[in-house]
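Appendix B, Record 12. Input sequence as logged:
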Amino acid sequence: MREDPSGRGRHGDIPFGNRHLTDDRDVFEHNAWDNMPWDEEMEREAKEMVERQKTAKVSEEKGRSLLEEPANYWDAFYANHTNKFFMDRNWLLKEFPELDTQQSETSMRALEVGCGVGNTTFPILDLDKDKKLFLYSCDFSPKAVEVLKGSEKFDPSRCTAFVWDITQSPPPDAPPPSTLDLVICVYVLSAIEPKKLHQTLLILRSLLKPGGSLLLKDYGRYDMAQLRFKGDRLIDDNLYCRGDGTLVYFFDSDELDERLREAGFEKEANVVDRRLIVNRAKKVKMQRVWLQAKYRRPL
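Logged structural output:
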């Protein structure tokens, strides 16, 4: 599972909804429960599962191949699925109210990183009723960008799309330094090899105006997707390959905060979204863990 496209949330002390499970007997009354705390036993079991995965890591040769050409695997993914895999992220405004251009008195410029085939691009443009926003959308899969630009929804007067591996220097199509109000990374940083993350964050920071914001949502440590991995998937600590060869890393909140501060960002919000997803028909409970964060380039 890549993500839960129905996620909800907001920045604050009590994020992500108010459906709280107060009696375990009611667990199958709804499909999801918000702000679910973990007890010591759950944490211990999760750690033990991850430790067991270390006994069946991918081979050194396979791991090296997966890390050397990650874009190739995403290109193959989009060539296979085109625009039929992910759902549009229509929850964006609830989690990132900064995207509400109706609350802004001036025009805005934003970069969406890892745009894929437009599941974030088009919802963002739909939110921009007054057409105050110009959106740059990039992905390191040429096939994804091709599908995005071929959509009837694509409007080149409001958006530009281009190929960019954000671990590398910006291409000519990228926005100039210090010109962006927002950079949006939804399930993007987890697809980057950890040793390349610092340089990536420095590049993204350089594109923001002083005071501009980096909006993040990504996978948290011990999310269900991490615990479900079987043998021949673990490359390095908390870094995995899916069956199609694409990479995914699971962040700890403190670790993510440290990496962003090292790159010169200031924290505005960094919260852990722990949610219990329920399959009521099969009586199955699934623990999801996501991180949502907002950091800014200092003034």
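The two ends are 39 Å apart (CA to CA).
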